[in-house]
Amino acid sequence: VHNSAVSIWCRGLTNFKLKKLVERNEQKRTELLDSEKKRVNKIEWNRDAALVYCAVLYGCEGAKYPSSNGVSLTNSDPNLIVSFVKLMGIAFDLDKNKWRVQLQIHKDQDFGTLIQYWGSLLGFIENQFYRPTVTSPNGGKHRNEYFGTCSVRYGDYRLQLKLIGVFNEFLRKSVGLGGVA
Questions:
Q1: Which of 74, 144, 165, 166 is most solvent-facing, going by the fewest CB within 10 Å?
Q2: pLDDT band at residue 180, thresholds of 50, 70 and 90?
Q3: Distances in Å between the alpha carbon of 44 and those of 47, 69, 138, 144, 160?
Q4: How far lies 135's CA from each of 15, 50, 104, 105, 138, in Å?
Q5: Which distant-in-sequence residues (6+ apart) come within 8 Å of 118 by Cβ?
């Protein structure tokens, strides 16, 4: 019998041992998630730290192809997008009018609602949003709290090169710490 069939058959059953295991697992997960928070809270949030964190985010999630004419980072996690925009604002003196947003949304989502959602999170106005890319979800899972994939763009290629340079230096330094030789 396939595992998914057994899972469906047993969905309504309660098992005391299983319940205790699940509770213990959740407790361990919470302890691990919270274990290093103190270290993050000790960080001094100055321009230099913001620049390094911003560059690392950009190096991991940003568009780095040579034909880019600015900084562009894409993700569906609102916290990551907001953090990046805020870190950029701390690290650099920015012109807020150079920001643009491109959303990729599902055809059953309301673009106006999503503009309000992302606009309020980022502090951007409606005319900073491009027309969205609309896709059809391909079956499978459906996330209730999905607000589309957001691409934030800042129109200054010099900042892109600075971020890439800082990211490359970060990687070079981490190799010196025992990374790949």
A1: 144
A2: low
A3: 9, 31, 44, 36, 24
A4: 42, 34, 7, 6, 9
A5: 78, 81, 101, 103, 124, 129, 147, 148, 150
